[in-house]
Amino acid sequence: MTTNARLRVFVQLAECGSVRAAAQALVVTESSVSAAVTALARDVGVPLLERDGRGVRLTPAGERYAGYARRILGLHEEAVAAARSESGPEHGLVRLAAVTTAGEHVLPDLLASFRAEHPGVDLRLEVRARDAVWPLLVHHEVDLVVAGRPPADLAVVVRATSPNTLVVVGAPRYAADFEPHRATWLLREPGSGTRATCLGVLSALEADPPQLTLGSHGATVAAAVAGLGVTCVSEQAVAAQVQAGQLVVLPVPGMPLERPWHVVSGTWATASAELLVAHVGGRPEWVAEA
User: Fold this and answer.
1) In a domain, 45, yes or no
2) Using CA atoms, how far apart are residues 124 and 191, in angstroms rounded to an integer?
3) Cα–Cα distance between 249 and 165 in angstroms, integer?
4) How many Å separate Cα 222 from the centre of its chain?
5) Same domain, 265 and 125
6) Same domain, 160 and 266
7) Could you give the CA distance from residue 92 to residue 85 in angstroms, rounded to a whole number?
8) pLDDT, tens digit (0-9, with 9 covering 90-100), for 110-132
9) Which of 153, 191, 192, 231 makes a 20 to 30 Å CA pair with 199?
10) H or E element in which residue 193 lies
11) What angle do CA 52, 55, 57 make, to 5 degrees?
């Protein structure tokens, strides 16, 4: 097994939390996972795993090594993509990550128009919660991220922005006498930027209403349409439901909020990724930043 293959096994183990789960995810035997990690530990010179009941867990050294392993794998893939895109950007690879709302409501049209102009470019898209997309960029596992404003401590470059308005919506029955502190608030999953904004709104109102956490953007909007409660959401994402009369925008102090979309790269991007950046900057709803 090559070093790269061993690193992939180790990263999968770190993400899954057990040898069995890593083996199932990779469709290999548990003994193969154990052998790969043992070989890595021998090369590093310190234990990367330790016993945890009937299972195993990463040692502190293993946790530290896992972060470097992700970056090594990401950089290797980025290096291959960069070399290929330099010789032919129109036939290179662009690796994208987006927060859920952007992945569902912003990127489909954008990528469709890009694909029509650049059919030879290989596009890959990861859709995850806000807290999960930025590590992908840090570890060089993606070339571009589409999300809200990036964390201030990241060494990244904002390439383009587009307006995005957050509003509070609920079923029409809430419109007559809506009181934020009495309604049930439907929250996105932990790690979601929209969830954090929603909780920030409630904190500013000094309100502690009933809350219900749902596992996805779609589930939250569906629950709001069903009358289960109200939620904070991108106006773009519920335009169809509002137009159809299934949802109404509700008055809440401090709302609406402007939370523009950002296309973000690392400090350097491949030639193929630059094709997509240029395409985004040429769209009327986007403003090129760099």
Assistant:
1) yes
2) 22
3) 12
4) 21
5) yes
6) yes
7) 5
8) 999 999 999 999 999 999 989 99
9) 153
10) helix 193-205
11) 55
